[in-house]
Known about the structure:
Elements: H1 2-11, H2 19-38, H3 43-56, H4 58-62, E1 76-79, E2 82-85, H5 102-111, H6 126-129, H7 134-146, H8 170-177, H9 191-201, H10 207-210, E3 233-235, E4 238-240, H11 256-264
Antiparallel strand pairs: 1-2, 3-4
The chain binds heme C (HEC) (2 copies).
Amino acid sequence: MVLIIMPLEMTFGGVLNRPAVRAVAFAGAALLSGLAMAQQVDPAEISRGAYLARVGDCIACHTAGPESPPFAGGLPINSPFGIIYSTNITPDPTNGIGAYTLADFSRAVRYGVAKDGRRLYPAMPYASFTYTTDDDIRALYAYFMNKVAPVNHKPPETKLPFPFNIRLSLFFWDAAFVKRVRYKPRVDRDAQWNRGAYLVQSLGHCGACHTPRGLAFQETAYTESSPRYLSGAVVDNWYAANLTGDPASGLGRWSEADIAAFLHDRGHRKQHPIFA
Ligand code: HEC
Ligand code: HEC
């Protein structure tokens, strides 16, 4: 098993794991944290991070309930394989992500690998978050480290039945289905279109619910280059509607104001299947 995994690890996921790279990253991180102590993080970057955390709806999955401390984890999420508990992403050093460097944070959010090397279950939408830009990851990190209150709370552990308890097998799932790429702006569209498409595909992770899943529970498309993207899917026994411009079954007859009103006022979140 080890023999098979080693070379693949090096090819796909291992870049940050190589000792030399890690040593350099560590030195860099030490230097950076020294700098951070010397100079304040730009407040504008922190508030941009707060906005991006709302786009990603991190709070919905990472908070156990309305009475629970924000971002301290413990929300049970149904999956076809069993219940997956979200983890504590407050900057608490023992039970949260307080010890995460920017590089660790980026790897967890965009590649689904925790600081200790644990492969995250794709209930964490890293397959979409991988499209997020470096600038936005930095802003999110600044927000979590500087504005979120640390909570020393250990959420329940996720215990899936065999073989899903073997997190290493997710390595193959990732290699097969997760494209480790950033959002590529389309030159035939204007800046506003690209901004919207970027937010939808990356932090918004709309496709995690609105794109049909394949046999391995992978999303069958991640961008509008496939007609399946956002064409509607069943989530936890709810139907997440077709969001394409199709006038019969999609949002083709919705105006921009209708969509904005639905998302803001009536609260997509309130009617949300897993965020109830
Ligand atoms: C749809 C639900 C969902 C959303 C939305 C979500 N997460 Fe997660 N996240 C999870 C789950 C579940 C885990 C734990 C997965 C596991 O245990 O394998 C996780 C794990 C993590 C981890 C790894 C922490 C650790 O050490 O265990 C980080 C960091 C993280 N999420 C950050 C974020 C950020 C930042 C956002 C918003 C941009 C976000 N998550 C949005 C479900 C979600
Ligand atoms: C965690 C799952 C989930 C995510 C993520 C999600 N949605 Fe939804 N969405 C649903 C479900 C389920 C419904 C249908 C139930 C309802 O009306 O709330 C829905 C309904 C909608 C509708 C109404 C469509 C109609 O015809 O009734 C719109 C518009 C929408 N979502 C847009 C979005 C956008 C834009 C994003 C990304 C920013 C997004 N959704 C992310 C689950 C999700």
